[in-house]
Amino acid sequence: MAPGRKDGKRGLGGLRDESQEIVTLVVDYIKQETLDPVKGLGRYVVFGVPGSIALSVGLVILAVGFLRLLQGETGSTFTGNLSWIPYVICTVVVVLIAFVAVKAVSRGQTPNQSSDKEKA
Predict the structure, then answer these.
(1) Which residue, 27, 28, 2, is CA-closest to 15?
(2) Average pLDDT over residues 52-76
(3) Residue 56 in contact with residue 25, Cβ under 8 Å?
Protein backbone atom coordinates (compact mmCIF):
# COMPACT_ATOMS: atom_id res chain seq x y z
CA MET A 1 0.00 0.00 0.00
CA ALA A 2 1.26 3.50 -0.85
CA PRO A 3 2.09 5.87 2.01
CA GLY A 4 -0.74 8.24 2.89
CA ARG A 5 -3.42 5.82 1.65
CA LYS A 6 -5.56 4.08 4.22
CA ASP A 7 -7.17 1.71 1.79
CA GLY A 8 -6.34 0.52 -1.68
CA LYS A 9 -9.65 1.66 -3.19
CA ARG A 10 -9.33 5.48 -2.98
CA GLY A 11 -6.80 5.95 -5.82
CA LEU A 12 -8.40 8.05 -8.57
CA GLY A 13 -11.57 8.83 -6.61
CA GLY A 14 -9.58 10.54 -3.85
CA LEU A 15 -7.55 12.47 -6.40
CA ARG A 16 -10.74 13.56 -8.16
CA ASP A 17 -12.25 14.75 -4.86
CA GLU A 18 -9.13 16.71 -3.99
CA SER A 19 -8.98 18.32 -7.43
CA GLN A 20 -12.62 19.39 -7.08
CA GLU A 21 -11.81 20.88 -3.68
CA ILE A 22 -8.88 22.77 -5.18
CA VAL A 23 -11.04 24.11 -8.02
CA THR A 24 -13.71 25.19 -5.51
CA LEU A 25 -11.05 26.82 -3.35
CA VAL A 26 -9.58 28.73 -6.31
CA VAL A 27 -13.01 29.89 -7.51
CA ASP A 28 -13.94 31.08 -4.00
CA TYR A 29 -10.62 32.91 -3.72
CA ILE A 30 -11.11 34.64 -7.06
CA LYS A 31 -14.61 35.72 -6.03
CA GLN A 32 -13.30 37.01 -2.71
CA GLU A 33 -10.44 38.99 -4.22
CA THR A 34 -12.19 40.38 -7.31
CA LEU A 35 -15.97 40.43 -7.08
CA ASP A 36 -16.37 41.44 -3.43
CA PRO A 37 -14.18 44.58 -3.73
CA VAL A 38 -16.01 45.57 -6.92
CA LYS A 39 -19.34 45.24 -5.12
CA GLY A 40 -17.95 47.41 -2.32
CA LEU A 41 -16.96 50.08 -4.83
CA GLY A 42 -20.55 50.33 -6.02
CA ARG A 43 -21.50 52.46 -3.01
CA TYR A 44 -18.70 54.91 -3.71
CA VAL A 45 -19.75 55.18 -7.35
CA VAL A 46 -23.43 55.66 -6.46
CA PHE A 47 -22.60 58.59 -4.19
CA GLY A 48 -19.42 59.82 -5.87
CA VAL A 49 -20.64 60.45 -9.41
CA PRO A 50 -23.74 62.48 -8.48
CA GLY A 51 -21.71 64.30 -5.84
CA SER A 52 -19.00 65.29 -8.28
CA ILE A 53 -21.58 66.42 -10.82
CA ALA A 54 -23.34 68.53 -8.18
CA LEU A 55 -20.05 70.10 -7.07
CA SER A 56 -19.07 70.85 -10.66
CA VAL A 57 -22.40 72.50 -11.44
CA GLY A 58 -22.17 74.47 -8.20
CA LEU A 59 -18.66 75.65 -9.04
CA VAL A 60 -19.80 76.85 -12.46
CA ILE A 61 -22.74 78.73 -10.94
CA LEU A 62 -20.50 80.33 -8.30
CA ALA A 63 -17.94 81.27 -10.95
CA VAL A 64 -20.56 82.99 -13.11
CA GLY A 65 -21.92 84.75 -10.04
CA PHE A 66 -18.45 85.92 -9.04
CA LEU A 67 -17.80 87.14 -12.58
CA ARG A 68 -21.05 89.12 -12.62
CA LEU A 69 -20.19 90.52 -9.18
CA LEU A 70 -16.81 91.74 -10.44
CA GLN A 71 -18.36 93.23 -13.57
CA GLY A 72 -21.29 94.92 -11.85
CA GLU A 73 -20.07 96.06 -8.45
CA THR A 74 -16.64 97.46 -9.30
CA GLY A 75 -18.06 100.53 -10.98
CA SER A 76 -15.91 101.85 -13.79
CA THR A 77 -12.76 100.01 -12.66
CA PHE A 78 -12.99 97.22 -15.24
CA THR A 79 -14.36 99.11 -18.24
CA GLY A 80 -12.92 99.83 -21.67
CA ASN A 81 -9.56 98.18 -22.26
CA LEU A 82 -9.67 96.52 -18.82
CA SER A 83 -12.92 94.61 -19.37
CA TRP A 84 -11.01 91.30 -19.65
CA ILE A 85 -9.59 91.45 -16.10
CA PRO A 86 -12.71 90.05 -14.33
CA TYR A 87 -12.53 87.00 -16.60
CA VAL A 88 -8.88 86.42 -15.68
CA ILE A 89 -9.58 86.87 -11.96
CA CYS A 90 -12.50 84.46 -12.14
CA THR A 91 -10.46 81.91 -14.09
CA VAL A 92 -7.60 82.07 -11.57
CA VAL A 93 -10.01 81.58 -8.66
CA VAL A 94 -11.67 78.56 -10.33
CA VAL A 95 -8.29 77.00 -11.16
CA LEU A 96 -7.15 77.49 -7.54
CA ILE A 97 -10.32 75.85 -6.22
CA ALA A 98 -9.85 72.92 -8.62
CA PHE A 99 -6.19 72.59 -7.58
CA VAL A 100 -7.11 72.52 -3.89
CA ALA A 101 -9.81 69.91 -4.56
CA VAL A 102 -7.43 67.66 -6.52
CA LYS A 103 -4.77 67.95 -3.81
CA ALA A 104 -7.33 67.06 -1.12
CA VAL A 105 -8.48 63.98 -3.04
CA SER A 106 -4.96 62.80 -3.86
CA ARG A 107 -3.82 63.33 -0.27
CA GLY A 108 -6.64 61.07 0.92
CA GLN A 109 -5.50 58.27 -1.42
CA THR A 110 -1.88 58.01 -0.30
CA PRO A 111 -1.02 55.14 2.02
CA ASN A 112 -0.50 55.96 5.67
CA GLN A 113 3.26 56.31 6.15
CA SER A 114 3.14 56.16 9.96
CA SER A 115 1.63 52.64 9.97
CA ASP A 116 4.44 51.47 7.65
CA LYS A 117 7.06 52.82 10.07
CA GLU A 118 5.35 51.14 13.04
CA LYS A 119 5.46 47.77 11.28
CA ALA A 120 9.20 48.00 10.62
Answers:
(1) 2
(2) 93
(3) no
